[in-house]
Design a protein that fits this description.
Layout: H1 10-15, H2 18-28, H3 35-71, E1 75-78, E2 83-86, H4 87-94
Antiparallel strand pairs: 1-2
Helix pairs in contact: 2-3
C-alpha cells in the first residue's frame, strides 16, 4: 500500500505541470474525488510550488555565498611590514 498520493523530488515537482500533478493525485486517491477536493488540491499545489520556489532560491543564494567564502583569500596582518599577507604565503614560508 502506498503511503503517499505523490512522491517525487522537489526538482521534478517544480518542473511538472499542475494538471499532471492533479492527475497523479486523483489516480492514487482511494475514494471518489469531488469538485471541492480537486479545487482544494489545486490551491495546495499552487501554494506548495510558491513555497518551494522560495526555498530553492534561498538554497541557491546560500550556495553562492558559501562558494564565495571558500574562494576568498585569508590574510593576517604583519605588524613589522604593516601590510596584509595571504595565509597561503605564510604557510609556504614557514615550511622552508
Amino acid at each position: 500500500m502506498k503511503r503517499s498520493l505523490y512522491s517525487e523530488t522537489i526538482h521534478i515537482f517544480l518542473s511538472t505541470s499542475d494538471d499532471e500533478l492533479l492527475g497523479s493525485l486523483i489516480k492514487n486517491y482511494a475514494f471518489p474525488m469531488d469538485v471541492s477536493q480537486k479545487n482544494a488540491y489545486r490551491v495546495q499545489l499552487t501554494r506548495a510550488r510558491q513555497g518551494m520556489n522560495i526555498v530553492a532560491w534561498y538554497a541557491q543564494v546560500a550556495k553562492t555565498i558559501n562558494k564565495a567564502k571558500r574562494n576568498e583569500k585569508k590574510y593576517y596582518f604583519s605588524a613589522k611590514n604593516k601590510r596584509k599577507i595571504p595565509t597561503a604565503r605564510l604557510r609556504r614560508n614557514t615550511t622552508e
